[in-house]
Amino acid sequence: MPALLLDGKTLAAETEAALLARVERLKAQSGGKIPILATILVGQDPASATYVKMKGNACRRIGMESLAVELPASTTTETLLAQIDELNADPDVHGILLQHPVPSQIDERTCFDAIALSKDVDGVTCLGFGRMAMGEEAYGCATPQGIMRILSHYGVPIEGKHAVVVGRSPILGKPMAMMLLQKHATVTICHSRTQNLPAIVAQADIVVGAVGRPEFIKAEWIKEGAVVIDAGYHPGGVGDIELSALTEKAAAYTPVPGGVGPMTINTLIMQTVESGEKSIG
Ligand code: NAP
């Protein structure tokens, strides 16, 4: 039987229509105020610049504004922290996105953690992560939260299932594992020093590829009927999982492109609208 396509692109587009209505309502109720997402881009990395532009475009599609802050590649940690402080103090800014990665001379973790919890709509602070992991209110990290939204939308059962997350980065693997645990999955986290990776992946009811290597996770490792989530995106339109051989074997899968990627940006703007509603509404 063909696997169910977990269509993030369509879900994101449908959600945008609802977000547009929410922004319009907020605007009407508040005498013209709208949520604003501040984006910070440090340096000229073309991929990062493209991601920031896509996020700004998504804001505009739903009637929100983005405030683009662009800093030179030579920016110091202190300068970036001062910029974040300014945005934290600005009552018209409802969300702050610091585009990852920043140039190597900057202490990225310190800068992420300087973002006020109430404006951490990308879910990158240690405080937000800790609160999420404890089941307390916090904005989830955008990519894994977007994945959870796809799973929920398609009614994929999580409770009691064995989820294997391959990757343990702060913005993806670790929060992904915690979110699945919150939903009562039994979670295994794999990384570069994991032994017998194929055998562990073979046990997964839900497998999440967050490795950053093209088609690193092989279709033959994955058991029949598993739910396959591919967070990767590489030139040529391939992800971290060998998806082409899974469209019949898996129960469901996220395509690349059109799966996880659109949901990441969608989650970021959705959480900015939520922050705007809390502060303006
Ligand atoms: P990352 O920071 O480079 O982390 C990669 C993770 O993979 C690390 O935890 C690493 O383990 C693990 N890994 C590397 N080699 C491995 C191996 N041989 N076996 C098992 N694990 C291995 O990457 P990331 O930022 O999490 O991104 C992961 C993927 O998601 C990338 O393809 C990226 O493009 C994609 N991504 C997509 C979105 C989106 O919006 N769609 C957003 C973010 C990221 P160690 O910790 O041991 O080094």
UniProtKB/TrEMBL annotation:
Coiled coil feature spans: none
Main function: Catalyzes the oxidation of 5,10-methylenetetrahydrofolate to 5,10-methenyltetrahydrofolate and then the hydrolysis of 5,10-methenyltetrahydrofolate to 10-formyltetrahydrofolate.
Protein name per UniProt: Bifunctional protein FolD
Subunit details: Homodimer.
Keywords linked to the UniProt accession: Amino-acid biosynthesis, Histidine biosynthesis, Hydrolase, Methionine biosynthesis, Multifunctional enzyme, NADP, One-carbon metabolism, Oxidoreductase, Purine biosynthesis
Stretches assigned to the Tetrahydrofolate dehydrogenase/cyclohydrolase NAD(P)-binding domain: 142-278
CDD domains: NAD_bind_m-THF_DH_Cyclohyd
Pathways involved: One-carbon metabolism; tetrahydrofolate interconversion
Catalytic reaction annotation: (6R)-5,10-methenyltetrahydrofolate + H2O = (6R)-10-formyltetrahydrofolate + H(+); (6R)-5,10-methylene-5,6,7,8-tetrahydrofolate + NADP(+) = (6R)-5,10-methenyltetrahydrofolate + NADPH
Highest taxon in the source lineage: Bacteria
Residues reported in the UniProt entry to bind NADP(+): 167-169
Gene responsible for this protein: folD
PROSITE patterns on file: THF_DHG_CYH_2
Gene Ontology terms for molecular function: methenyltetrahydrofolate cyclohydrolase activity; methylenetetrahydrofolate dehydrogenase (NADP+) activity
InterPro entries: Aminoacid_DH-like_N_sf (IPR046346), NAD(P)-bd_dom_sf (IPR036291), THF_DH/CycHdrlase (IPR000672), THF_DH/CycHdrlase_cat_dom (IPR020630), THF_DH/CycHdrlase_CS (IPR020867), THF_DH/CycHdrlase_NAD-bd_dom (IPR020631)
The protein's Enzyme Commission number: 1.5.1.5, 3.5.4.9
Pfam families: THF_DHG_CYH, THF_DHG_CYH_C
Keyword Cell membrane in record: no
